[in-house]
Amino acid sequence: MRISHDDQLFALLREQGRSVEIWLDGIKQSNVIRADEATGELVRYRTDASGKLVTLYSEVLRDTLKGKVRIDIVRTDGGR
Q: Cα–Cα distance between 8 and 18 in angstroms, integer?
């Protein structure tokens, strides 16, 4: 599965009371822009040690990471 933060799927999932969780090598990720299970790649916004977004010239920096990507669609009440 491949998913991007600007996909219409995100809006549809919210309407259905669901959300998306992205995992890389078994670690839950945040600030993910795009994830692809087939290529094992995700792109996320860079954060500093305190969790704040890192910017350069008013642009939020991004990191591209590779590994075992898993995309889970979950209910907002914690179920699957």
A: 13
Task: Point out the residues of the chain with pLDDT beneath 70.
Answer: 77-80
Task: Please give the backbone phi and psi of residue 9, each rounded to the nearest 5 degrees, phi first.
Answer: -60, -35
Residue 18 belongs to what domain range? 2-75
Name the phi and psi angles at 56, rounded to 5.
-140, 120
pTM over 0.90: no
Rg over alpha carbons for the chain, rounded to the nearest Å, is 13
- What is the tally of structural domains in the chain? 1
Q: How far is Cα of residue 66 from the mean position of the Cα atoms in its chain?
A: 13
65 domain residue, yes or no = yes
Tokens of 1: 């599965």
Beta 27-29 vs 55-56: how paired, if at all?
A: unpaired
